[in-house]
Design goal:
Layout lengths: L8 H9 L5 H19 L2 E4 L1 H17 L15 E2 L26 H8 L6 E3 L33 H8 L5 E6 L5 H7 L2 E4 L19 E6 L2 H11 L19 H5 L7 E4 L12 H16 L3 E4 L6 H15 L14 H12 L2 H22 L4 E5 L17 H11 L5 H5 L3 E8 L5 E8 L4 H14 L13
Parallel strand pairs: 2-3, 7-8, 7-9
Antiparallel strand pairs: 1-3, 4-6, 5-6, 5-10, 9-11, 10-11
Helix pairs in contact: 2-3, 5-6, 10-11, 10-12, 11-13
């Protein structure tokens, strides 16, 4: 018999509708696993056990009161929220000791939508300080570790969310991605994670859109679970700078995850836009294996050029530094920040308005130059990362934050370019090394075409199922 955490989110929701599982039973099961196992993977900063049980009791009342067809799509299913985003009345640290005692006053809009879908919020997942690094190690919680090898990082900045799903501490999780922060941990934790198109999910009410690098999105074991979570969280609000075109009336992303894709033209590249970066042989093996699989499924795969060069990353680093000063920190708390955060904030304060404007203008000009070639393909295939999951502590260069940033850039040279363009982009867990380490490959679609990525990813999942591959911790 399957245990509760063996079931997908869709299966759990269906079992609740059929009254085969109760929301209280599901929630208690996950809270027990968090209590017993989270110290091994560092998935959570805050666990909201009392409020989660209260939400589960209310969900159970709905099950007993309402007809199955009237129940929301994820009733009783636990979905934790990354600690960069606010949940009203819950501790909200941004992964920083400077905010250790902060409590959110409002829900993020996607949290409102998760509540309306019937989900149970079990806690706030681990994230690095202000979400700036590509690994989840901070001064407020233990490091987030991939359950495939607890000596290695779960990536970042949605490392806690990925660790929770991969270890069976949550069926699915919300993450966010401003430079790869969903796709990086998806790759190192053996999950499917998709960064939606810019404007697909509103950042209202408190997070500004800025230049549109960051968006929320799902991390899941299956494409269908991710598609349903994307359906639930999607939508814009008046005042958003960016909006994505909605699906045609009556269609859902979950529908597309169940459809066979048409024959697609896929451009592939493995050259990184960072000079001197050579992908690990295991990364290239995963990339070539994915190419063979796509070709075998009938798609046209051909060589393509990397859309951008190192100049984009230099401009991106200016904007990335500027993002760190968006979070106000009292002057007396500045010395509590980690060296990388202090360095990025100092760099941002040393920039002029002209520097920032030139960087943002340069990024857009680079997009305009690269986009015509990219639009010749339905999908782009590349590695997600340049290396295998990194040991915990690998990126921390102590008092040399420039070296720390360089290590991160060499590790993840591929992902941020598609935050700049705003295109939907997913990491797909098709490959494991002989030592049992997951290696993702990245699929990137045209703007607004998450449906194509989900359909293609689901086809790959059917051809090469991965959800039943589980780390040892899964059975603990």
């Amino acid at each position: 018999m399957n245990r509760i955490h063996d079931l997908t989110a869709l299966e759990q929701a269906e079992a609740v509708r059929r009254r085969e599982l109760s929301p209280v039973e599901i929630t208690d099961h996950y809270l027990d696993r968090i209590d017993r196992l989270d110290d091994q993977v560092g998935a959570f900063i805050t666990v909201t056990a009392e409020s989660a049980r209260e939400q589960a009791r209310k969900a159970e009342e709905r099950v007993l009161r309402d007809a199955p067809e009237d129940l929301p799509p994820l009733l009783g299913v636990p979905v934790p929220v990354k600690d960069l985003d606010p949940v009203a009345g819950v501790r909200h640290t941004f992964g920083s000791v400077a905010y250790a005692d902060n409590t959110a006053a409002v829900d993020a809009e996607f949290v409102v939508r998760l509540r309306a879908a019937g989900t149970v919020m079990t806690g706030k997942t681990n994230t690095p300080e202000f979400g700036s690094p590509c690994y989840t190690e901070n001064d407020i919680a233990p490091p987030a570790r991939t359950p495939w090898d607890a000596s290695r990082s779960a990536g970042g900045s949605s490392g806690g969310a990925a660790a929770a799903v991969a270890a069976g501490l949550a069926p699915v999780a919300q993450g966010s991605d401003g430079g790869g922060s969903i796709r990086i941990p998806a790759s190192v934790c053996g999950l499917f994670g998709i960064k939606p198109s810019r404007g697909r999910i509103t950042s209202a009410p408190v997070r500004p859109d800025y230049v549109g690098l960051s968006t929320s999105g799902p991390l899941a074991r299956t494409v269908a679970d991710a598609a349903l979570l994307l359906d639930v969280m999607s939508g814009s609000l008046p005042g958003d700078y960016y909006t994505a075109p909605p699906l045609p009336a009556g269609e859902t992303f979950l529908d597309h995850a169940g459809r066979e894709p048409k024959r697609l033209r896929i451009g592939r590249f493995s050259a990184a836009p960072v000079p001197g970066v050579q992908p690990d042989p295991a990364v290239l093996e995963a990339y070539e294996d994915a190419t063979r699989l796509l070709t075998g499924l009938g798609h046209e795969v051909e060589e393509a050029e990397c859309p951008f060069d190192a100049s984009m990353l230099r401009m991106f680093s200016v904007v990335w530094a500027a993002m760190t000063v968006a979070s106000p920190v009292p002057p007396e708390y500045e010395d509590r920040l980690r060296p990388l955060t202090r360095s990025l904030r100092a760099k941002a304060r040393g920039l002029s308005v002209e520097d920032y404007m030139r960087a943002t203008a340069g990024l857009q000009l680079a997009i305009r130059k690269a986009m015509p070639a990219m639009l010749g393909y339905d999908v782009l295939l590349s590695p997600t990362l340049a290396a295998l999951p990194a040991p915990v502590g690998h990126f921390d260069a102590g008092d040399d934050p420039e070296e720390e940033f360089a290590r991160m850039t060499r590790f993840t040279p591929y992902t941020s370019m598609f935050n700049v363009t705003g295109q939907p982009s997913a990491s797909v867990p098709l490959h494991w090394t002989p030592e049992g380490l997951p290696v993702g490959v990245m699929l990137t679609g045209r703007m607004g075409e998450e449906a194509t990525l989900l359909s293609l990813s689901a086809q790959l999942e059917r051809a090469r199922p991965w959800a039943d591959r589980r780390p040892l911790l899964w059975d603990a």
